Amino acid sequence: MDWRGKSASELGRAIGAGDVDPVALTEGYLDAVAASDYGPRIYARMTRDRALAEAIAAHDRAKQGVRRGLLDGVPISWKDLYDTAGVKTEAGSMLLEGRVPTQDAVVLANATRAGLVCLGKTHMTELAFSGLGVNPSTATPPNANDPELAPGGSSSGAATSVAYGMAAAGIGSDTGGSIRLPSAWNDLVGFKPTHGALSLQGVVPLAESFDTVGPLCRTVEDCAELFAVMGNTKAPDLRETSLQGSRFAILDPYASDVRDGPGSAFQSAVERLANAGARVETINLPAVDEAMRTTLSLYTAEAYGTWGKVIEAAPDKMFHRIRDRFRQGADVLAADFVALWQRLRVLRQDYYKATAGYDAILIPSAANLPPNVARLDSDDDYFVTENLLTLRNTRVGNLMGVCAVTLPTGVPSTGIMLMCPPGDDARLLRLAKAAEASLA
């Protein structure tokens, strides 16, 4: 069995059928990381002893017929901002060097109770504050389609651990697009749940008002199963899904004002959705445009409020471009911050009313293709402009407070994003399952 190309759910079914041994599977992933030159660029550290102990326990449960669920015994990776008891969690920053938590993050503890195997901690953008995935302080993982290109961030290692066959799935976080961007650029499915649907306890924060946690996977089914595992709930029923009669809206200018590669891939994907029975039209929403134009400082202010004292105590430890981005929040007045949040809540309600008649809103997952890492390293202006463009489309979902999923279009490093209202995570996953079939 070619286990490295299988989805987490396929591996779970194979374990249940007795075709795959969790211990051999885990050893295979650990060996794959050790044998690859890219291993140290994808994983910040492995949790080998923990992984093998968890795999042995899963093996015993499988033999006794008492598996805890579909994913019992499946090895996955965790972004290095999830607390792991007794193991360093540094969030890609030298500011947190040597930080060792005493207990697991809640979502990791839930996954462990469900029998999943923790392979290790993956590299990420420093403190999760960039969409490019470049981190000269620790490591920049290689893009799956071209190692010279940016992998997408901030969950860069989470995505590439899956794309390079070094984990069955990866767990990342998303504040402005950090699950969906690396998923799109590495041809994966990435799911950003509704803010608050999964616990943030034990997750190193960036801007908690926007932070979400979720999976980067090969399939929508994997996303649904991992969403359930992390939340200690039942996975949504993805059987008998269809796009027939569904109504989608393409949100402009976020679909038209994109570069040629993502634009043509998106149009091709939309045509396939329409061929599967979806009705598609184009809309413009002033509420989104105003939010995108006026509320960026909500991110920088909260991020700097969270990390400013730590940063200024040792500013030279930070990658200067990320440090500069944090510092943009230093001068935001408290009164302005409150007023912007009040306005954003109004704009969100306007958005929900305007989109209530649609099953999902569609836009390209990213307006650009992955840029060259060497040029990002050498050109400050290029880094800033590419980062802002990279995050533009995904940030719509975070600002509007919706749940969102990115699906591969079939064109390398491009994705199509579906967005549904907050709390509609199960319905979104069902739509995504039907869309996935039409895009295959």
UniProtKB/TrEMBL annotation:
<dbReference type="GO" id="GO:0003824">
    <property type="term" value="F:catalytic activity"/>
</dbReference>
<dbReference type="InterPro" id="IPR023631">
    <property type="entry name" value="Amidase_dom"/>
</dbReference>
<dbReference type="InterPro" id="IPR036928">
    <property type="entry name" value="AS_sf"/>
</dbReference>
<dbReference type="Pfam" id="PF01425">
    <property type="entry name" value="Amidase"/>
</dbReference>
<dbReference type="InterPro" id="IPR000120">
    <property type="entry name" value="Amidase"/>
</dbReference>
<protein>
    <submittedName>
        <fullName>Amidase</fullName>
    </submittedName>
</protein>
<feature type="domain" description="Amidase">
    <location>
        <begin position="25"/>
        <end position="429"/>
    </location>
</feature>
<dbReference type="InterPro" id="IPR020556">
    <property type="entry name" value="Amidase_CS"/>
</dbReference>
